[in-house]
Each structure stands twice: as C-alpha cells, then as structure tokens.
Amino acid sequence: MSVPVRFVLLAASSLAAGGMMCGKAYAEDPEVRALRGELAAMRREVAQMRQEMLAQKHERHHATRVSARGANATRPAHDTESAAHGVRIADAGPEVTPVFSEVTPRRPPGPRRASEGRLSPTDLPAESWAAFRAATNENEEVQIGGIRVGFPNWRPTISSSDSVYAFSAGILAQLDFGGFLGAGPRAGEGKGKFPSFAQNARRIRPNFTWRYRNWVLTVTPEFGSSTTDGSVGLFEASLNYTRLRNTVLTVGYFQPRMEEESAERSGAFEFLERPAIVDIVRNIASGAGRFSIGGEHHEKRWLANFYFTGQKFGDRNKDSTITDTQTGAVTRIAGRPYASRDIDVHVGAGATAAFKVSQNTNGRQYTLTNNTEIPLGETNLLTSGVLSNVAQIWAAGPQLAVRWKKLLVKGEYYHIGVLRGRQDGGGRLPSLGFDGWYVAANYTLLGHGRGYNSQIAAFTTPGVEYDFDPVHNHWGALEVSGRWSVADMSDLADQGGKGVNGNQQTSWQAGFNWYPNRHIKFMLDYERYIVSRSKGVSGGVNLFGRNGNVIVGRVQTSF
Question: Contact at 8 Å (CB) between 180 and 550?
Fold first, then answer.
C-alpha cells in the first residue's frame, strides 16, 4: 500500500474512533479506555508517517537540485552568455522547504480593543450571576471533574461546572517612594515630619470573593496605610445581592462613593491620591471600611446610589472612650448626556452628611484635615482646628468631565457645612462653611485614551494596545496629567478655639503614568504645595505658613 493511501486510511480511522468517543462522552468503562489507547497509538503513527513523507520529499528535491547543478556545469558556453545578456535560463527546480526551520520569535497578540487593554480592577461592584456565567463561558479554562478553573475578567477563579458556586481572588498592591524638598521650618516653627526620602506601602489589598448564584461575599484586608505602613486593617467586608438588573445591594463594611474621583477606584487614579477636598468630603460619612447599607443602580447613560452609613471599622478600638457612634448617609447621581466615539460628557452631583458625629469624653468634636495629597508620613498642614459641639456636618457639590479623543478635562467643587450646638452654659456656636475644588487635565500619549465606564459612572485608565515589547516597538500606554486643587478650611476667627483658625492649602501637580501591560503601572508625580498658617497644627509646625515640593514614584500591580 502506498504511503498516501495509508495516510488517508489512518486519518479516516482516527475520525471514526473520535466519533465513537463522542458517542460515549465521559464514559470510563474498559472498552472506552482501550479505544482511547488505540486512538493515541494511531495518532503517533500518523505523525511519524508525516515526518517520513516530508523527509522523502526533501531528499527528492535535494537530488533534483544536484542534478540541475550538474546540467549547468555541462551547459554550452553560449547558454551561459545568453543568461548574462538577460535571457532567462530555466529554473533549477522548486525551492526546498526544510523539514526543521529556525523558530521565528512570536509577535505579541493584538492590537487589543480599548476595553480589553484597560487596567485590571479589583474593587468594581459585584457582577450579577448572569454576567459571571457569561464571563466564565468566554474564558479559557480547565475542567477537573465538576470543577472549572479559569480567569474570567482576568481573575483566578474556581467554580462549579454550572457556576453556581465560585471563589475568586485578586490583589491591588502599591509601593510609594520619594521625598520632600525645601520643606524646612521657618524660625520659631516646629520641624514636623517631612522626610527627604521615605517609602510607604500605600495599599496592599488582597481581594477574596465567594459566590452563590447572585449572593456575593467580598472580603478585602488592608496591609497598607494612608500615612506610614506597618498596620493591618480592613478595606471591605460586605455581602452583595446582584439579582436585580444593573443593581447591587450591599450591607457591611464598604466604601460608598459620591465623587467622580473616588468612583474611578484607587488603582485608576491619574495621580497618586485624590485632591485634598475630595478626601475631606468622603471621610465625613463614607471612606474605606465604613459600615454601609444601601444600593447602586446604573444604566448606559446614568447612575444613582444611596447608602445609610455608620462608623468606620476600628473606630471604637482606636478610641475606647466613644460612647455614641456616628450615623450618616451618602448619595450620588451622575449622567452621560452626550457620548460618541470621540467625545464623552459626564455631569453629576454628590452629597453626604453625618447626622451625628461620634461622642467621646471630649464631646462631639470633629477636625477637617488632610495631608499634602502625597502621603509619605508627613505632618498634616491643612486643618480646620478641632471643632467642638458639632451637631451635624454635610457636604455637596457638582462634578463635570469632558473627554475629546485622548484628552480628558474634569473638575469637582464641594461646599462643607458644619452645624454646632450650644456651649456648656452658653449660647449656640456659629455655623461654619468651607469650600474646595480641583481642575485636572490628562492626555494619553501612547495607547488608547481614557474611557468611560458606565457601571461606575467615571473614567478609567488608558488601554494598552500591545504589551511592552521593545523588540517589536511596542511600549504599552503612557499618559501625562496636570492638576490644580484648593481646599479652604478657614471661615471664622477662633473657629477651632481661642486663637486657632483654619487655613488654606493650594496644590499644583504634574505626573506621568506608564502601563507596560494591563496589570502593571508606574507613576511619577511632582507637587508644589502652598499652605497658609494655622495654630491648629500640633507642635507649632505651621505658625507662619509652609511651602514646599515633593517628588514621589509608585509601583503598582493589580490582578
């Protein structure tokens, strides 16, 4: 029997055996095992025959070329001269394809669409069971018995074959390093903490998610710190219900979001941290690890949420004298009135209120304070002073953002109101009002520009079209940003007690962010800060006002 005929018959046999196997899928009786072994043996024989056929073809082509070279050697001289004068001589034979060839470096996959190349987030709202099943079905996975192992939405996930039960894990890790320049005190001031070089594990958040259908439990410990690392806390521990369309209902320790900047998620920030006014406002009744009960609903063009909130995780452990804990609320409504391929317009408003603040041995006190927007363990220079007899605190304001192609411009403004009760044996203390805002611009130099995520009603990271690969001239994504922010915590004289006034902080920042792929991010920020004086800063650190510079880099990973 000739080699080609044997090859056809064996291939037909393989197909027939495969059909028999499909007819008895997953059967484990001895007959099936025997057929599987026979099929594997036939496959090996077919592969060996193919190699032999290619080798024979190579030998025939080699013999043809040798014969042609011999004919050329005995060709008459006038034939050679004809070739020299442009007359085509017959080809010596077909080009030989070697059996074994040099391996060509594989080009990276791509180009990716913008949505496929964006940063891998770890703390987006819990997705519905239907969305989870769809992502699991599209994912490359391995099945082991009744267990499916894969990476839906880029997260390692173990689930049952019907996706009813699932466990996922992820992590966000950020390491900051840098220092302050020209932050020395004036004569008569305290030095304060302004390190010339320091490091801080800003966020280290392993994220664990357990699912039963539309019930999702999320637990995220926190091993980083907003100031100096070394402490362990909790970012989130919440139970979520996702059966209602585009709606997530949540109870537990959670971070409700009322600002566009916070809604972006910390792994997608344009700068290392939020503007000072955003941090001050969000900590009134939300912030990380805040007890919350409420929900969020989104459509393609709008989002609305509302949460009733309580104390933060660990508050009573930090202050054992607390006798009455805080209660409050957070709400946000945002829309996308115009959207096209090149343009996105975002408008919204957020509001928050602490109906009552915590009470301890000093009464109901509250201090509005923040760092220089780049936390490296420095002394907080911005403060309202310690406000006493606080009855309620509220804040509200608008948010606006416009994207045109790869350029994004956005800003937010918030007003804070403080209502105070009566002094002991005296009249009611005056109410206070504070303001703050920021304006930021961002441009994507390499990669897809920042995009709008309707699920969170906020913008997210640039998209990496190709992973970093200098061999093929691929450099990931690169963006440049600038921001001006102001937070004014001054209103009345002696608002923080006799001789203690609030102050104002102005910050100018510039930064570069590089994304070699959708899991890694490198950041470099420069800031110039200008803070007016206030005796409300402990240790006499800001008696005459402080100006300075800071340069900080960050390495971030998220899976």
Answer: yes
Query: How many other CB atoms are found less than 10 A from the CB of residue 305?
Result: 24
Mean of the pLDDT values across residues 328-349?
Answer: 97
Q: What is the C-alpha separation between 373 and 382, in angstroms, rounded? A: 10
DSSP 539: G
For 349, what's the count of Cα atoms within 13 Å in the CB-facing half-sphere? 6
**Beta strands 343-356 and 327-339, pairing class:** antiparallel
Length of the chain measured in residues: 559
Our CA dihedral for 360, 365, 371, 376, rounded to 10 degrees, sits at -10
Q: Between β-strands 451-453 and 327-339, what pairing exists: parallel, antiparallel or unpaired?
A: unpaired
| Nearest-10 crossing angle of helices 3-23, 30-73 | 150
Q: Which residues contact 15 (CB under 8 A, 6 or more apart)?
A: none
Query: Comparing 6-15, 255-264, 443-452, which segment has the lowest mean pLDDT?
Result: 6-15
What string of H, E and C letters represents the secondary structure of 90-159?
CCCCCCCCCCCCCCCCCCCCCCCCHHHCCCCCCCCCCCCHHHHHHHHHHCCEEEECCEEEECHHHCCEEE
Q: What is the pTM of this model?
A: 0.79
Looking at this protein, which amino acid is placed at residue 552?
Answer: V
Which residue in 202, 254, 207, 257 sits closest to 230, CA to CA?
A: 202
Burial zone of 32 (CB within 10 Å; 0-12 exposed, 13-18 middle, 19+ buried): middle
246, 306 contact by CB (below 8 A): no
Asked if the peptide bond before residue 111 counts as cis, ω within 30 degrees of 0, the response is: yes
pLDDT single digits (tens) 315-326: 999 999 999 999
Cβ–Cβ < 8 Å for 326, 311: yes
> Strand, coil or helix: what is 232?
coil
Let me know: does 557 contact 192? Beta carbons within 8 Å.
Answer: no
SS (H, E, C) 453-512: ECCCCEEECCECCCCCEHHHCECCEEEEEEEEEEEECCCCCCCCCCCCCCCEEEEEEEEE
Amino acid at 531: V
